[in-house]
Amino acid sequence: MSQDGDLAIFHAILDAGSFAGAARHLGVTPSAISKRIAQMEGRLGAPLFVRTTRRMTLTEAGQTYAARTKDLLTQLSAAEDEIAEGIGAIRGTIRLTSSIALGRRHVLPIVLDFSEAYPDVAVDLTLTDALVDLIEDGYDLAVRSAALPDSGLISRRLAGNRRIICAAPGYLARHGAPTLPHDLAGHACLTLNMRGPFNAWRLGDDWDRPLELGRGFSCNSLDALHAACLRGLGIARLPSFLVAEDIANGRLVALFDDVEGPAERSTISLLHPYTTVVPRRVRLLADALVEGFRHQV
């Protein structure tokens, strides 16, 4: 009897919530599912499920078995992929996520090059400014420019990433340039309309305390704030990967470079969940991202 097959059946029941649902998912009959579970329980010497006409629950032994075997199927699948990819073509799916602005400018070109080089690998790229849970949402990799919490994820540095307070020359001509950080309270400041540390502008000796900002246009997109800043609608705090070229070409003017605090510098990182087996296709894309950012940013 295949124990990994039994394991797949056991977790299919947990995912479906019933023997009948697991049977539909696996394409077998409910009686076949019941027979295999009965054989498992006989081999283990303990019942795994309590089944009534209304509901199904795990026994204490079932809860222990579920907790101890949760990652085994994933590791087994990854190990089989690793072996198959080591002797044949690189194939399979990679789920990757990035913030929208960073992803559009820097991640997407690297992914497209990778997809051309490895046509049998399907890269599933999600661009979102929401902070996703890699493990809960099933992502293999994430590119992030925000400060990283102690999440237990494996991190690789891709590039440095300054936050630059800047404005268009037209805005400064109409409203004057702020000379001190607290002057920002009297200016139109462009901010994200979402929770998080991005709107906490910190400068100079008081870098540990967020500055008071004047009200201005807000949006949930860094690209939109960038566009508003270029149009002269106010002062924005934007990552260097978005505005470095604009500043070099005079479309935007950097402010407060001489009083920049530690919070204005962060790192663009590549994250992946800890696992004992990383498929070769995932390692290849991770290496491509590291190399690509070395040349881009």
TrEMBL record:
InterPro entries: LysR-type_TF_proteobact-type, LysR_HTH_N, LysR_subst-bd, WH-like_DNA-bd_sf, WH_DNA-bd_sf. Residues 1-59 form the HTH lysR-type domain. Keywords: DNA-binding, Transcription, Transcription regulation. GO terms for molecular function: DNA binding; DNA-binding transcription factor activity. CDD domains: PBP2_CrgA_like. It comes from the Bacteria. The keyword Repeat does not apply. Gene3D superfamilies: 3.40.190.290, Winged helix-like DNA-binding domain superfamily/Winged helix DNA-binding domain. Transmembrane segments: none annotated. Belongs to the LysR transcriptional regulatory family. This is DNA-binding transcriptional regulator, LysR family. It comes from Salipiger thiooxidans.
